[in-house]
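Bump. Still looking for LUD domain-containing protein structure tokens.
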Amino acid sequence: MSFFKKIFKKNKAFSEEEIKEQRVTLSLDDSFVHNFIKLGGKFLYCLKNQDVTNNIQNILEENDWDTISVRDADLNKYISSVKVHTDDGFNKNIPFFTSCESLISENGNILFCERQLNDKKLATLSNDFIVFATTSQIVKSKGESLTGIKLKYKKNIPGNISPIKNYGAKISNDDFMNYGTTNSKNLYLLLLEDL
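Sorry for the wait, here they are.
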């Protein structure tokens, strides 16, 4: 008799709290995008190089920007057909178009180093960033991103490793470890599919 009771026993009803606690497992890229947008970032997915160029044009028009700062010569191919003046210096008053080292899935942060920033602190740069990255740059954690930098630059590990953690120029970070500094930026991410 107890055997039949077990078979035909009603399923336990789940409470609302138990349902809320169930976690959805997202892929690395979905998790990054979810966390990035939650922090206020503007995300533009690109399937091909022409999409990157078109999105840059749209960003410039939307914000009425006629000049951008570009220090990475590899990024010039994306703006060569766009009508925009370029500045190869760090100018706080014009948007900064740059690449990055990695995109951190667990928290939606973007990691930079001296290859992009030289010796400049994020707080001293423009409040407006356009960042170019590829899907292969998405990593799970901060530890993975730092390991990636160590492997990529083996004998000449760069300094000035800094993440942007908030993507609204007016957002402040209450973390006491960041007291007196801010790395909040109005940021557009152009993510090119390369996998």
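Residues 176-181 have pLDDT under 50 and may be disordered.

Edit: fixed formatting.
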